[in-house]
Design goal:
- The chain has 358 residues and is mainly beta.
- It folds into three domains: 34 residues, no CATH class; 211 residues, Galactose-binding domain-like (Jelly Rolls, Sandwich); 78 residues.
- It is built from two helices and 25 strands.
- Strand 24 and strand 25 form a beta hairpin.
- It starts with 13 loop residues before the first strand and ends with a strand.
Length: 358
């Protein structure tokens, strides 16, 4: 049986049984890097980075618009001009990288020529509570590491960016895709930002973007911080510039440190609960807790306890289209029933959604 001997002498390293520690304290096990500081669990700040959860579409395709839509939970797609690409969980039905069962796929709908002010992007907004330990905006700001698997029908330089919630601090990054239609693993190191305001509450603390075609107005030099809103790196490939071009991504991880550790695979239930803090789609039978008469019409009130505490008091709707707006809180919906909701004998049977997105 192998044993791990930790050498405490400075400027030395040790290796035993496939486990090594270099002179900087980085731990490698059978060639795979592991954190030398911080937690082994709960280190990935990205939610649904393996694209397993899709409450809204159940795997169906959506067409990008200017308002923003979620093809899978927590990742939304948008663009300056509508209908330039489609997005879908497991689009094209290709085999994901080893260890993954899902990915987010985007497919260009035309050969669109990018103007200076155009942008087409995939985005996740990270809650300030979850990235507070990055210490961005302080002299103690930490280096962070972004890693992901990607595949495209195009090759060349691709880009993205990390931003603060206000969008006035941006770090464009670039990466290379060298082989068409082949999954490749990418790692980007991002130096901590000692400037700007970075929220540490339940508002947007950090924004991660992947560019599918971004004009010069929203592109900047890769690898440096800017005091403006940038979505990608200058010179990055435009996916929407080629009709039928594809861009697939999965295994997205963002963590503290200069070493990309193995993707943190969380349980399905854990990942679903994290997604439900921002969006819930559920159905069931719910009982009214009281009733009253109002202007000659019988109204019934319904209290739905939500499965998780949401980021803020949500906007809630039922499949009938009626909006539940009466005293919603972050852990329950208090809704007034009416003719738009199917009710009988004091019982409401319906499907509802609750949204607390940024």
């Amino acid at each position: 049986m192998s044993t791990l001997r930790v050498n405490t002498l400075q400027n030395t390293s040790t290796t035993d049984g496939g486990i090594s520690i270099d002179t900087s304290g980085h731990i490698t096990m059978d060639g795979v890097p592991y954190p030398s500081a911080g937690p082994l669990s709960n280190r990935n700040k990205i939610i649904n980075g393996d694209m397993r959860i899709d409450q809204r579409n159940a795997g169906g395709s959506i067409t990008q618009n200017t308002a923003g839509q979620y093809p899978v939970d927590r990742f939304y797609v948008t663009g300056s001009v509508t209908s330039k690409f489609t997005a879908q969980q497991n689009a094209g039905s290709v085999t994901p990288p080893a260890g993954f069962t899902n990915y987010l796929g985007c497919t260009s709908s035309s050969a669109y020529s990018i103007g200076a002010g155009d942008f087409f992007i995939v985005t996740q907004i990270l809650e300030g509570f979850n990235v507070a330990d990055f210490d961005f905006g302080k002299s103690t700001a930490k280096t962070i590491r972004l890693s992901f698997w990607t595949r495209s029908s195009l090759t060349g330089t691709f880009g993205g960016a990390v931003q603060n919630g206000a969008g006035n601090r941006s770090y464009p990054f670039s990466y290379e895709i060298s082989a068409a239609n082949t999954w490749e693993f990418k790692v980007v190191t991002i130096t901590g930002d000692t400037s700007g305001t970075w929220n540490t509450d339940n508002s947007g603390g950090m924004v991660l973007r992947f560019g599918l075609g971004v004009g010069s107005t929203y592109s900047g030099t890769a690898g440096s911080w800017s005091g403006s809103q940038l979505f990608s790196a200058t010179g990055a490939t435009s996916v929407v510039g080629t009709n039928g071009a594809t861009f697939y991504i999965t295994g997205v991880q963002l963590e503290v440190g200069s070493v990309a550790t193995p993707f943190e695979h969380r349980s399905y239930g854990d990942e679903l609960a994290r997604c439900q803090r921002y969006y819930i789609k559920a159905s069931g039978t719910y009982t009214f807790f009281t009733s009253r008469n109002s202007t000659g019409t019988t109204d019934r009130w319904l209290n739905i306890d939500l499965p998780v505490t949401m980021r803020i008091a949500p906007t809630a709707t039922f499949v009938t289209g009626q909006t539940a707006v009466v005293n919603n809180t972050s852990d329950r919906i208090i809704a007034l029933s009416g003719t738009a909701i199917n009710s009988s004998n004091g019982v409401l049977i319906t499907e509802y959604t609750a949204t607390a997105e940024f």
